UniProtKB/TrEMBL annotation, chain A:
The keyword Iron does not apply. Its main location: membrane. It is a multi-pass membrane protein. Residues 52-138 form the FtsX extracellular domain. Pfam families: FtsX, FtsX_ECD. The keyword Cell inner membrane applies. Keywords: Cell cycle, Cell division, Cell inner membrane, Cell membrane, Membrane, Transmembrane, Transmembrane helix. This is Cell division protein FtsX. It is found in: Cell inner membrane; Cell membrane. InterPro entries: ABC3_permease_C, FtsX, FtsX_ECD. Belongs to the ABC-4 integral membrane protein family. FtsX subfamily. The chain crosses the membrane at residues 20-41, 169-192, 220-246, 258-285. It comes from Lishizhenia tianjinensis. Residues 175-288 form the ABC3 transporter permease C-terminal domain.
Automatic annotation (TrEMBL), chain B:
One of its GO terms (molecular function) is ATP hydrolysis activity. Keywords: ATP-binding, Cell cycle, Cell division, Nucleotide-binding. Residues 1-233 form the ABC transporter domain. Part of the ABC transporter FtsEX involved in cellular division. Important for assembly or stability of the septal ring. This is Cell division ATP-binding protein FtsE. InterPro entries: AAA+_ATPase (IPR003593), ABC_transporter-like_ATP-bd (IPR003439), ABC_transporter-like_CS (IPR017871), ABC_transpr_LolD-like (IPR015854), P-loop_NTPase (IPR027417). One of its GO terms (cellular component) is plasma membrane. GO terms for biological process: cell division. It holds the Pfam family ABC_tran. It comes from Lishizhenia tianjinensis.
Length: 297, 233
């Protein structure tokens, strides 16, 4: 009988835990949406950053094999994502947009040879696709191959645009995320305080029988971690659902996350959920631990 | 060494002086009543003894704890050395009687599960409610709940039991049973300090009597000297 009542009581408590968890997961879901959109933007930007082409032109005295040797060398550079050798014929094709008539006409003028010199084109890694870093890389390359590289070409405007557009987005997301974290903290804190308020006399009784604050806190804190973790899992499930719906109904949006992105997303929700939950529990508990018996009524 | 000794003590509650010039001594095995009207400061006196209020002036100790130098960290240790019984029992309502006792044992440093169970059933046996171990507190009568509270107070073999109106919520018959239990505890070596306004009980069971009145504490030699209407206009 007592066990039944104990179970019944636990069920009653579970209902209040459920509402706390639902509250936290909804807030985490909102935060996840902001972080998710940010990561999606970042992916888009990285893709366009890594799409920038930088051309290296060489001294005419170098032959194809010399340049191919440098190509292999460049592939080892950690700033370079991809590098490939562009033969004079290929350069001519690219130059004329593949128009074979024009190509043949030009070749005829130059006795069957392409007038363009051989070159190497490479895509930089997204992390260094900023005007400053590319300038540094340019200087580094010129220093590494003195008298060999004659010119390094890239579209400076495109490079600047790709960085500028994103800079504005970062501020918007940072402000949004910051505001949401404050709202999240306020809501979660309030929910947890309310649920602990109902236990203030239990906490006091524990103190009166000689339990140390640390001993009283321990089960509450473990519980808050569990609360944070469950909420993060629920929040992530909601997010996955939301992404699925967005992809199915808005065909133009293609959400493509890497495992790393998903890891960051889930990790942030897990960390934020647990940290906010632990901090709120800690502060609310300390408040009741400090209060005198008479102040609890 | 006396269990409690206070000299020239003062107690403040929210910046107002509740009791002044407290001089009191309690020896081993003694049973002492603290009587007085509601709001006279009986509870404040007891609260000071278990660290819920501080001794603002003078000198005093409970067991080995100097009340004037009592640090926050020492309060749980002081409370382990005294057992407290409240008018409203203050049991943990979300767990069974046995789990209430096990919580106290665990929180006061007991580690071995078998020993904890043994001690819990032992004290429940001492107060006569060993058959209620698996019940929830709210399934018990007021008298039974108070017995459990007394059992809880006895768990760590305290040198002192502080009882704040332990019979306040009980009918006269049950009150007498709790009184018999407390006097038996005192005879076995644990001092008892009990706040009450039930003069009939004091009269029946006898013992040293302290009267809290007009912001002070006075010892009256016997119960017959106490006139509850004296302070009335």
């Amino acid at each position: 009988m007592a066990k039944d009542i104990e179970k019944y009581n636990k069920r009653g408590l579970q209902t209040s835990y459920v509402s706390v968890i639902v509250g936290i997961s909804l807030v985490l879901f909102m935060l996840g949406m902001v972080i998710g959109t940010y990561l999606w933007f970042e992916n888009l930007q990285n893709a366009s950053k890594e799409n920038i082409e930088i051309d290296l032109f060489f001294d005419p005295s170098l032959n194809n094999s010399d340049i191919k040797f440098i190509e292999q060398d460049l592939k080892k550079f950690e700033q370079i994502k991809e590098a490939w050798f562009v033969s004079p014929d290929r350069a001519l094709e690219v130059f004329n947009d593949g128009n074979s008539e024009e190509i043949n006409a030009i070749k005829e003028i130059y006795e069957g040879e392409s007038p363009l010199p051989p070159s190497i084109t490479f895509h930089p890694k997204a992390s260094i696709a900023t005007p400053e870093a590319i300038k540094t890389l340019k200087a580094e390359l010129l220093a590494a191959y003195p008298n060999k590289i004659t010119e390094i070409n890239y579209n400076e405007q495109e490079l600047e645009n790709v960085n500028l557009g994103f800079l504005k987005a970062i501020y918007v997301f940072a402000i949004l995320a910051f505001l949401l974290i404050i709202v999240a903290f306020a809501i979660i804190n309030n929910t947890i305080r309310l649920s602990l308020y109902s236990k203030r006399f239990t906490i006091k009784t524990m103190q009166l029988v000689g339990a140390k604050p640390r001993f009283i806190r321990r089960p509450f804190l473990w519980h808050s971690i569990l609360q944070g973790v469950i909420s993060a899992i629920l929040g992530m499930a909601l997010l996955t659902g939301a992404f699925f719906v967005i992809e199915s109904y808005f065909f133009s949006i293609d959400i493509d996350y890497t495992i790393m992105n998903l890891g960051i997303l889930f990790g942030s929700l897990l960390a934020l959920g647990s940290i906010i939950s632990i901090l709120s529990t800690w502060f609310a508990l300390n408040k009741y631990l400090r209060k005198k018996l008479d102040d609890l009524y | 060494m006396s269990v409690i000794e206070i000299s020239s003590g003062k107690i403040y509650q929210r910046n107002s002086l509740v009791l002044d010039n407290i001089n009191f001594k309690l020896d081993k095995n003694e049973f002492v009543y603290v009587i007085g009207k509601t709001g006279s400061g009986k509870s404040s006196f007891l609260k000071m003894l278990y660290g819920e209020l501080s001794l603002a002036d003078g000198a005093g100790h409970v067991s080995e704890f100097d009340l004037r130098k009592l640090k926050k960290k020492q309060i749980p240790l002081l409370r382990r050395d005294i057992g407290i019984v409240f008018q409203d029992f203050q049991l943990l309502m979300d767990r069974s009687v046995k789990k209430n006792l096990l919580f106290v044992l665990k929180s006061t440093g007991w580690r071995k599960k078998k020993e904890m169970e043994k001690r819990a059933l032992e004290v429940l046996g001492m107060v006569g409610v060993e058959n209620k171990a698996d019940r929830m507190p709210h399934e018990l009568s007021g008298g039974e709940q108070q017995r459990v509270a007394v059992a809880r107070a006895l768990l760590n073999r305290p040198s002192l039991i502080l009882a704040d109106e332990p019979t306040g919520n009980l009918d006269p018959e049950t009150s007498e049973e709790i009184m018999k239990l407390l006097t038996a505890i005192a005879q076995e070596g644990t001092s008892v300090l009990m706040a009450t306004h039930d003069m009939a009980l004091v009269d029946k069971f006898g013992g040293r009597v302290l009267r809290v009145e007009n912001g002070g504490i006075k010892e009256i030699s016997s119960i017959n000297n106490f006139n509850p209407f004296e302070a009335m206009p």
